[in-house]
Every structure is written in C-alpha cells, then in structure tokens.
Model the fold of this input.
Amino acid sequence: MHGHEDTYKPQGRFAKWMDERLPIMRMMHGQFIEFPTPRNLNYWWTFGGILTICLVAQIVTGIVLAMHYVPAETLAFNSVQHIKRDVNYGWLIQSMHAVGASMFFLAVYIHIFRGLYYGSYKAPREVLWILGVLIYLAMMATAFLGYTLPWGQMSFWGATVITNFFTAIPIVGDAITIWLWGGYAVTGATLNRFYALHYLLPFVIFGLVVLHVWALHVSGQNNPTGLDVKSPSDTVPMSPYAISKDLVGMSAFLMVFAWFVFFVPDYLGHADNYIPANPLVTPPHIVPEWYFLPFYAILRAVPDKLGGVILMFAAVAILAFVPWFDTSRVRSTRYRPIYKWFFWAFVFSCLALGYLGAKPAEGSYVMWARIFTAYYFLFFPLMWIIGIIETPSEMPRSITESVLGKGGGKAGAIAAHAAPEKR
Amino acid sequence: MSAHADDPNRRDFLTLAGPAFFAVGAAMTAWPFIHQMNPDAGALALASIEVDLAPIQPGQAITVMWRGKPVFVRNRTKDEIDKAAAVKLADLPDPQADQARIKKGKENWLVMVGVCTHLGCIPKGQSLADTKGDYGGWFCPCHGSHYDTAGRIRKGPAPRNLEVPAYEFMTDTKIKIG
Amino acid sequence: MRTDTMTVARLLATRVLGACAGLAFAATAASAAGEAPEIKRQAWSFSGVTGLYDKAQLQRGFQVYKEVCSACHGLERIAFRNLVQKGGPEFPEEAVKQLAATYKIKDDIKPDGKVAERDAKLADRFPALYANENDARSIHNGALPPDLSVMARARNVEYHGSWYMHPLAMMKDIATAYQEGGTDYLYALLTGYTDPPKNVQMADGMNYNTAFPGNQIAMVNPFAGGDGQVEYKDGTPATVANYSKDVSAFLSWTADPTLNQRKSTGWLVMLYLLITTVLLYVGKRIIWSKMH
Done:
C-alpha cells in the first residue's frame, strides 16, 4: 500500500455498522477496487488471476470428487470408473480436476517465467517471490499425492519411485521411507494417507496465496519496464482497468482448459494409468506427469542415486535464491541485451529437459540431459556475473513515458523527475 | 486504441455484456456440481424392482429391499381381507378404505413399505412366529404402534398408515415396484 | 509500443502454441511400451472434433465381443443397462433384459445360508469370468486375459518421427482431438497376426503379432476362423477387418461411454467461451480507451 488515499465511504446504515466492527468492505475496496496498478501491464500479468481460478476450480472439483471417491486399495480404481460412468456429470468433474491440474501448472510456469523475465523477484519483492516458490513446492506435493489416487499402474509405480528417493538419505533413509509408506512397500495404507494429505495441502496453498497477495499489495505490482511507480499518472485503479484485462485473460485461458476437458481429456495423462495397479508388473517406462518431466530428467542425469535426488530438489530450491543471484541494476530483461540470450537459453533448456524426461535414460538422451542440466544450474551464477558486467540499453524515464511516449508531455516529464530510479 | 463506439449507451452495454456472459456461464457451470449429488445411475437403476409373487402362499408374506428400505408383500387370506373391509373409516386415525390400498381384482396382495410412520423402525408381523399386534396385522416394538390387516394404523403413536408404494402388476404373478 | 489487439492476438496465439508445446510432453509420456512397433492410424466415426459413435457399429462390435472375446475376456465395468442408454449401442431394453437373464450372478443368499445363482438384471454389471487371477491363469497356460472395459484407453500409439517434428505432431493431435491411440492399437493388434519371420525364434505357446510390443503375444488369434466367423445381420461384410474395426469401436465406447455428450457439450462451451472472450475484450478496449 504505497500511501494511496482511502476513499471508501460506506453506503447505508448496515455498511457503516459493519465498517466500525469489521472493515472488510473497506479492505476489499482499498485492495481490489481502488488499488493502483501500473498502467502498462501486459497480458502476462493476468496469470495471477488465472491461477486463482485454477486453485478454486481444483478445490471445488476436488471436494465434489471426494463425495464419491473411495481411497481403499481394492476399490480406488473402480471408484474413479464409477465417477466417470455413473455419477451425474462425474465424467465432466473428473476431467476438470485432472486437466485442471495440468492447466494449473501451465499457468504457474508462465507466471514464473514472467517473473524471471521482468525481474519481479528483485527488491522489494523478495518475500513475494519466495512465497511463490513455496506455493510451487506445495503444488508439486499436492499433484504428486493426487496422481496416486486413481491407483493405476503409473500411480502406483510413480509413488514407488518417488518415495524410494528417501532411501537415499544416509542412516535414516530406510526408516523414513517405511514410515512414509506405512508398510514395506507402497500399499493401501500409503494410498489412504496420501488421500488425507492431498485433501489438506490445497488449503495450505490457499493460505500461502493469501500471504502472497498480501506481500504483493505491500510492494505493488512490477511492470514490463521494471521501473518503480513514481507518480499517479503511472497507475490506474484496479477496477475497472486491471480487472477488465484480467477477465479477458481468464476467459481466453478457460478456452484452452475447455478444449482439453471436452476434446482431448486424456491427452495430458498416461495410458498406463488405465491399468489397475499391479505390484508385480513394472511398466516399461515409468514417467511422471508432464509438469514434472524437467526435474525427472535432472534426477536421471546424475549417475549417483543420492546425488540425483539432491540435484533434483536443488533445482527447485535454487529458485528461492534468485533475488540474490541477480546483480543487475535494472529489473526488466527488455533492457538487458546480453542477459536476454541467456534467459531464452534457460527457457529452451527447461523445455528440452522436459522432452528428455519422457525419453528412456539411454544413449544420446543421457548426454543431452546432462548438458541441459549443467546449463540449468549454470544459469544462476551466470545471472550474477552478467548483472555486474552488463550495460542496460536505453530505458524510458517513467512508466507514463513508456506508455504515452516522450510527448506524453508534462505528465511524463513530471513523473520522471518525481523520484530517481532506486535499485 | 480509440473507443469502439461513440454512443454511450452502446458503449455501456458492450462493457457490461462480457462480464454478464461470464456470470451466466459461471452460474450454468454450477448445475453439474449440484446434480452430482443426486442419486447416480447405479442407484437409479435400482429404483424399480420386480417381485415374483408365485412362491408366496395365502397367509404368507415376504420382505424385499427397495430403495434401501424393506417392502412387505403379503398374500392375504380371505379372513384378513374381510376383517380389513369391515372396519369403519371413522375408527381409523388415518382414514383410508382397504380398497384404496390394493389393486382391483388383486385384493389379496398387500404391498407396503415396512417402515413405521412414527420414527422409522421396522414393524413385526411378517413371519408366522411374529406377534401381529391387537389387530392381526403388524406391531411396531419400538413404541407400540398397532397396524391392521390392511396395514393401517389403529393404535399407538404412528400418525399414518404404512405407505403403499407405486407398483403395478406386470403379469398375474409379477409386480414391479417403483 | 504494441497495440492492444496485436498483444492479445499474440497472447492467444502464444498461449495456444505454448500450451500445446508445453503440454506436448504428455504425448511422449503416453506410450504404452518401449520398443513399440509403429501403429497405423485408422479413420473412425468418432475421430476428430465432430466425430461421434456409430450406433450400428457399436452393436456389431458388441456381437463380436460376445461371440468371440467374451470366452476369455471380462467386461466387468459395463452394466447391462449401459447397452440400452443413449450414446452407446442403444439396444432395445427388452432384448438386453433377455440377454442379461442368460448371465448368472451368484449372490442370492437363501434362508439356509447357501448362496444360489440368480438371473442378471439390467442394473447388474457383466459378471466376472474367473473366481480370481489364479483361476484365470490355470485355464490359460499361465496367461491372464485382461478385462477389456478400459482397454482402449489403457493403450496408446508412440511417436516414431524425428524429435524436432514431434512438438508439431503433438500440436496437431491436440488440435484435431486425437484420442484414438488405443483404438488404433487394438485394430492393429487384431489384424496383426501373421507367421513369424524366419529369423525370429518364437517362445513356447506364443504367437507372432506385428503390433504387440516385442511381437510375441500369449493370446491366440481370436479371428483364426477367418472371414465369416461372426455373422453380421445388417449386411456389413463379415470380414476379419470389419470384426476388428467394429470390436475396437465397441471397446472404445466401453472405455469412454460419454464421448457423444462430451463432444456436443464441448462445442457449446467453446462457442460460449469464444463469445464471452470477445465481448470481454471489446469491453476492455472501451474501458481502456479513456486512458490513451
């Protein structure tokens, strides 16, 4: 809240009464109606709203599915079939939930790369960024737990592979893994507890999102130029401006979502998960869902078991330190001619790692996975170096100027002089 | 980047049309989430059952499960029918003629939901050894409701007669309930 | 400075392409087996964004299942009433009732405690063929004939082209709503029985099949009887190719019975979302016009 005026005036007796006791309407008005947002936000900024819709959709469809799903070893697979065949609109709700998970990750990856590109993690938004990493971790845990629930071959064997990671921990690894399993292998006991945790975590995510939005509203949004907001002409009230743009983004995103739900609902899944889980038969290729593939590739790139596990977790954890890896004086990659290439190479690496994660760990695939893993991790120290040696290209003097041009006249010039650009 | 229309009314409409569409769609999306709680296809498939009457001798009764509840099917003797028909309607807490509780031409067949209308216990009287209460029909042991040979409440706290579900004769020896 | 329309058009295009490319990994992940032979794609009545099941084909397919496959393979997730309902073979109810009565279900508990068999009703599912896995294996020389209810979804085709064309192939599959990988595989399997090539050593009791991963399958050719094995009453030529096609289509339905409803609802939803997005965009332009 950078000191914008609170112009909320409660209308009517009830509103005034409430305002004195629990000023929720005042808060909503200040934070979501009047809140000043940079006027130059592009559509990449609509993904925050899109992610909120994804979270709500997953929770709602999930709770409804929970009314019909049975988390017992011998009944789980058939209960999902029961939902798809007998429950009224069960086919639709189950599809929305399964496709919704993929959509959630698609949106979160775009949201993360937006943040990386425009320097949205840089001061004063470090905590905002770290909260985002925590949300991402919680999403990964939730998705992993959820995927075991249909109890197909991939559910079972994916759970076996991932929980086996913990045996790599020295000394206590085996005991921890048995504790996680509730047995000596993945069993019905594991399924049941994974269900309980899968139900719990989305509400943890919800709490983290509240903190995330709070942190955002303290610093305000970043914008494509990376410049700070310096004057009132740099911003517009959230309603109706940002909200109308958010709605367009959400609606377009829902089109992609709907296309998958209605026309290719199983495309993002794996055929092997339509085979009921069998502890005695291992599928020829165990692969996680697409959104985990890059990490899977990193895991398998390392010949040592413990090393692979550590590097895989490090690949996520390292994101939390990006605000300190990046030494650049400017936020937005738009004005960073050298860094730009490395950024896009990083994006390509992530895509390549994803592709390789689905391939068998043989032949030249292994070599390429190692090359791209190396670049993935090198990117961060490179950020450090490039930030120091790079000269940024010419930048507009203010947000207003970037929108209205230098001929934006007095408003632009005043805005530029209002406060010098801080780091 | 100029405005689409200059007419302010059209402009307002266009600004609001999008959110209105969005809201309508969101409301329509609610229906599947509400409807999924209604009985599913498996439950609906069991919503009707067929009962074969041939093995039931006069004076005998069977109990079948229908929609999760017991249904009494009794083959009444002439004695029981006469007794039921002779009762004056004014004597009944829930007045209903015997004729109204059976199918014409099939007076010996009595089909009723075997759930006491007081608080839901299952009345006794189906098997020969059961006590049949003071009126020769059924007796609910929970709070002492007495039903007669037409399943009507005569004495006790139950407010209504035992419910007769919708059923029809498919042949002389087969009925479909529900 | 980009104009709004360009931004949104670019955004939508990037979104779609990004979605397809980003999500395209799923197809690489979706193969059923390692060195899987290349499977040819067939044309199905229910292919593509507008395809729907052909009732007559599903009925013939059920006939093939019943006369040939049901000797070994169960269909335990299908209820007899499913054969009557819309979007499927849509057999007349009376006919299915009589069909159901030919199946016995052992759950009639008598007063003396013994469990008797009763005729199956519409509400019942197809009964299990075997008491348990060992029972099945002891009959079939150690092999376990799998239940076929979701087989058309439990299999898929692998991509056999070059890595740089792969993302484009995936985007094409998503755009054309290709979900028939399992169906194509089943057809290829059923028509893939041939004599083994000279250099291949067949294991005991195995049969050579061009579509099965590893090429050696325990199942004997179900259509070893050749053309005419199943008599079609609607005039469709009684050939192995047609049997394979029809039963593959039928099994697609058993795996995905709501396809017809899914696609027709899908069109309405896409249309509605398109209109909504356009209206919201127009509204957004109007609102923002004051800013520039």
Summary: The CA atoms of residues 46 and 67 of chain B lie 7 Å apart.
